[in-house]
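thought: fold this chain, then report.
action: predict
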Amino acid sequence: MNTPVFEKDFFINNRAKLRELFLGTAPIVITANGLLQKNGGEALGFVQDSNFWYLTGLNNPDIILVIDKQKEYLILPEYSSVHDYFDGKLVAEEITGVSGIETCYQENEGWKQLRSRLKKTKHLATLAPPPSFIKSLGMYTNPSRKNLIKKIKTINPEIELLDLRAHLMSMRVVKYPIEIEAIQSAIDITVNTLKPIIKPSKLDKYTKEYEIEADISSGFRSKGASGHAFDPIVGSGTNSTIIHSTSNNSVISKNLPIVIDVGARFNNYCADISRTVVPGKVSSRIKAVYEAVLSAQEHALSMLKPGLILSEYEKDMEHFIGEKLRELGLIKIIDRDNVRQYFPHLVSHYLGIDVHDVGDYSKPLEANMIVTCEPGIYIPEESIGIRLEDDVLITETGNIVLSNRLPRII
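observation:
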């Protein structure tokens, strides 16, 4: 298996490209994510801001990146001795070795440098913060960007902020060869882990969803992944109809589908693959639904190529799946409300550092973009959920299914 290593030149080049795309002379200031409390004095597992990692390669919280014309430096947080004992100290030489940024200031000195610049400038480029709470997802967001902007505004209330998110999205959505290699490695780990698990002789021995999850977790780590790219989904029977069924605690229902939706994370890049399997007998009804989903995936794959606009493709796929739902006797009239009862998600999303990576669904696909292809049909009243998902590289002339080694048979 290829083991691509992201050397400091990768991050140096990304910062240089950002300077080229951002034509202004304003300083660029971007923060790492901060730690979030789990309970008491315990923090949740740290996950870095993907844009910050893309520019620095650093997986440490609370660091601030400053790019000011040809000058760049990092501001390192000052922690208590208690923190240093338990979590280790930040070592400037190690940070330079990863990021290629030669100048690292401790917090007070770094902010002294930045403060003098902020007082003299009318504009500053950064990443706009997300809302504190995303209602549609029912989750709170990391406050690090919001806190950075609050501190900047305290220093210069009149400063105008310029948002860099579109620049970084345009950079990240088209993958370099080393990124494609990393994603392929994550996919290979996922495929090699799932292959023995979904064989009938192995599948029939599982009695609980978490037993499958445990074997997947072990397989990922033993094959070189840092862990899961997202919370693993192993949904049996009724749980197969819940799109993000992550509790994985139920007894496995014989003769009913199990949706397995997982992906390894390798060198900070993600795989995202789904297969649906049935322990025991496959009924004619399950087979019919499965073949409808497989047909939808084949139709989607035939369209994925440069120039395709995903928002238009999704409309086409909604109608195609509507035809299948009508054939299955689930709906009589193909309209959005009827189709979305049984197919409530998109067919494709971008894939990269994030499992739902950045990308503009209103712009044409280009070569070296990577997307998923994951149609599904979910029938709660019959405890039948079917999803097939593969990871697809857009090429100059069409696409390559990077996860094609994993069989798509029920």
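thought: worth noting. Residues 177-197 form the longest helix (21 residues).
final: tokens above.
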